[in-house]
Specification:
Layout: H1 3-23, H2 28-37, H3 45-57, E1 61-66, E2 74-79, H4 81-102, H5 108-113
């Protein structure tokens, strides 16, 4: 993944993870696997775990410890009402941003014509 993609992803990863949790409750590894299935192959598990700590601290998820067959209990994250509102705000902001970006020239030719 290029540097530009990495930087853009930093600003949107929270919303992406909340969107995954809006579909179903999950633990960290499941979220990382889902991201990889969707083409985000360069995201480190540590990045996701740090993000999960932040969204838990913000009160956007409910966390339940579930016994694991291997090792310590897993923390399963479920989007709560605050998280759903935060996700709705994220999509509203995203749509506004996309609309504004779509109004900009997208090619070198368009830039030269201006």
């Amino acid at each position: 993944m290029g540097t530009q993609m990495t930087e853009m992803l930093k600003g949107t990863l929270e919303g992406i993870v909340l969107a995954i949790l809006a579909k179903k409750s999950a633990y960290g590894y499941e979220i990382t696997a889902e991201l990889r299935e969707r083409g985000f192959t360069d995201i480190a598990e540590g990045t996701i775990y740090a993000l999960l700590v932040r969204i838990e601290q913000k009160g956007l998820v409910t966390v339940e410890k579930v016994p694991s067959e291997k090792g310590p209990p897993r923390k399963v994250f479920t989007l709560n009402d605050g998280g759903r509102q935060h996700l709705a705000d994220f999509w509203e902001t995203w749509n506004q941003l996309v609309t504004r970006i779509d109004q900009l020239p997208h090619t070198t030719n368009e830039l030269e014509e201006k």
